[in-house]
Amino acid sequence: MRIELQDIPRLSEQHQTVHRIKTFSVDGVNRARTALSRWQKDYGADWKKLMRAIRYVGTTERKNIKNQDYVKKCDNPKHGDVYEFRANHCKLRLFFFYDPKDETIVVCTNDFLKNDSKRGKTGGQDAAFALCAEMKKMYERRTT
C-alpha cells in the first residue's frame, strides 16, 4: 500500500503559516482532492466558503481554533481525534486529523455532502468520521 501526502490546489503558502494542509492519497486514490476539484466546479460559492475554513486553520494556532462554523471535532468518542472542515450554511464537509507526531501538519482524508440523497447509502456523517479515523490509523502505521 502506497500512502502519500499531497498539496491542495489553490492553497498558497501564505495560507499555511501555522499548519501545512495536505491531502491523503492511498494507492493513487485521493478522496479529498477529488472532492475539492468536483466541488469547485459544482458548488463554487460553497467551495469558496470551505476554502476559507481551510485557510483559517492553516493560519491559526490549534489552541485558538474555536470557531465551530469552520471546524468541528467529531462528537463520537470511538472515532478519536478527527475533525471536519465546514462553513456556515454550507453542505460541504472535508474530514481531517492532525499528524500525531507533527501537529503542524493537517491531513485531509475524505468528504461528505450534507443532505445528499445518497446519504443513506453511504452511512451518513458518522460513517464519514469513521472513514477518517480508519485513514488516520493507516497513516499512523505508515509513520511508525
Layout of secondary structure:
Layout: E1 3-7, E2 20-26, H1 31-42, H2 44-58, E3 71-73, E4 83-85, E5 92-98, E6 105-113, H3 119-122, H4 124-143
Parallel strand pairs: 2-6
Antiparallel strand pairs: 1-2, 3-4, 4-5, 5-6
Helix pairs in contact: 1-2
**CATH 2nd-level architecture:** 2-Layer Sandwich
β-strand percent reads: 15-25%
Q: What is the end-to-end distance?
A: 15 Å
Please state the structural category: alpha+beta
The CATH topology: YaeB-like fold
Q: How many domain units?
A: 1
Largest sheet: 6 strands, mixed
Mean pLDDT, rounded to whole units? Answer: 92
- What do we call the CATH homologous superfamily? RelE-like
SSE run: EEHHEEEEHH
Q: What Rg, in angstroms, do the CA atoms define?
A: 14 Å
SS element count, helices? 4
Quick synopsis:
The protein is 35% helix and 24% strand. The chain has 144 residues and is α+β, with helices and mostly antiparallel strands.
